[in-house]
Amino acid sequence: MTGIGVEARAQGARARALAVLRIRSRALAVALLPAAAAVILLAGGSSGHFTGHGWDIARWVTSVSAVLVLLAAGVIALVVARARPAVTPTVAIAESAAPDLYRLVRDLADRLDVPAPSAIALTPDCDSWLEDRTHPAHGPPPPRAHDEIAGPGHPHRRTTTAPVLVIGSPFLWWMRVGELRAVLAPVVAGTGPSAHPDIAAARRFVRGLDAAVAAATDRGRNPAVRLLCAGIGWVARLLLRSCQVHAAEMERGVAAAAAERAQSVDYGVRIVAQEQVGLAYAGWDRLLTRVALPAWRMGRWPSRLDAGVVAALTELSRRDRLAEGFTSRLGERPACDLLEEPGAVDEATSLLAARLFHGGPAETGPDWSPVAWQEYPDEVVDRKWRTDAARLHRVLDALGVRRATPAPDGPTLARVLNHLTGQGPAGDGDQDPHPTARTPLGDEDDDLPRNPRSAALATRLGAAVAREEAEAMPAGSGGQPVGQEPGAALWDDRALPLFPLQPPRTDRELLADHVTAMVCCAAMDTVGATPGLDWLDGPTLLVDGERVTDLTPRVLSLVEDGDAIPLRTWLVEVGIRPEKPVRLG
Hints:
Elements: H1 2-46, H2 53-82, E1 91-93, H3 99-112, E2 119-123, E3 128-131, E4 148-149, E5 164-168, H4 169-174, H5 177-188, H6 191-194, H7 197-217, H8 223-242, H9 244-261, H10 267-297, E6 300-302, H11 305-320, H12 326-330, H13 342-358, E7 369-371, H14 376-399, H15 413-421, H16 452-472, H17 507-526, E8 530-534, E9 538-543, E10 546-547, H18 551-561, H19 565-574
């Protein structure tokens, strides 16, 4: 029954592919129709059948129209054929850098009786797929330290047949070898239907149309070029809409045939492995948003993100008891052992993740350097808190908020508390010096706190952060993207990040983060607290070696309502003196 099901689904996919190719043939027929009419009229005139002044005019009009249509069709066909299809930025893995991984994939292809993928690449995401890179524009880029991990004497070669297997890098570090094989089985099985000539031709046509639409959007400044691109884009979009349904059903048929073929390979293990896929996705997302993102904003990129996701998922599994037999599972061989140099691969994928999710530079530099996990608390957390606290006091200075009396030797937490609660010394800071600033008294603006003093401070703080980020933007445009040929862009640097992790922070969130940073600085400088790293929650404060877990709601009470009692109570319990000066960044 499995063989019959595979063949039935493959036949359905091929039928949809033929439907796509018929649309291409109809478009060609429409382009040739004026030429055919012109040939008939010219042949009739030369044989003496279509004579007279009216037929002469018809021959001229039809011939000119045929030439123009053929020229337009030729230009469109040339653009569709030569337009560079989109390619997922990945880290290429040469066979000499992962012989065991290549052997596993080839053995899996042999068991499934399908062609083996031509190459393997990694992506910083929790997904795996096959990607066709046979277009002439996808030639091999020159070797670079961060876009290919290859051993000596093994050049990167592009094949013209089988697609490239793209594997999510978190899978290699979190999954065991058997689980990875089970997860990759339906993906590798997709090389079978992909090798059929009709399906391959239909995919090339659809990818060409999609690339032509993208190329037509860059119209330049010349009016003639803009008009030409508009026409090409209109025709390409029309053809793309015409074959959209058939192309989608073709891909569904290919996926169904691949899944049916993979049923016979490690089916029981795959059920367990799918649970690990969901767990890996949750841990990866949490690691990027809560741990990596603060470092990226500080100009540092964690160089071992894949190793970090293992630590995060280990903590998540132990804390929430998500996996039974967790200890015995960790005793099995991890899939990253299939790589010759897992550390180098982890570093390359970590840099690519920073570029895709944050828009950082493609190369390291003075303002964009790697950071190891053991250095994260001091290099990222401490610097972040002191930088945010310094920015908070600069904004207070701009608002005219007076320092405490008598004036201490430096900024204090008491100044922030007194201003937000209205207990500070009388001065310019009691009124918002900018009447246009938003100071809602109720819930009119969800981005601002209810407390008018907090709202004014949050507005100015948001503007300061936006100004600093805008000034730092040019630093992220240098270097070549991963997998990019010199002079040929896979994306526009101005569009980075391609996959932003979070929407922009609201002014309320910014103010809460900055007040929290000031509290943490006071704790470090007065009671000897230390910065720490929590794999699930990111930067954390350690007091006497214990993680502080109840600070956020106390800060929110102060920011939102001007109620400092919960926070002051905690300060007294810990022994923090708000009036003592702190060191800022």
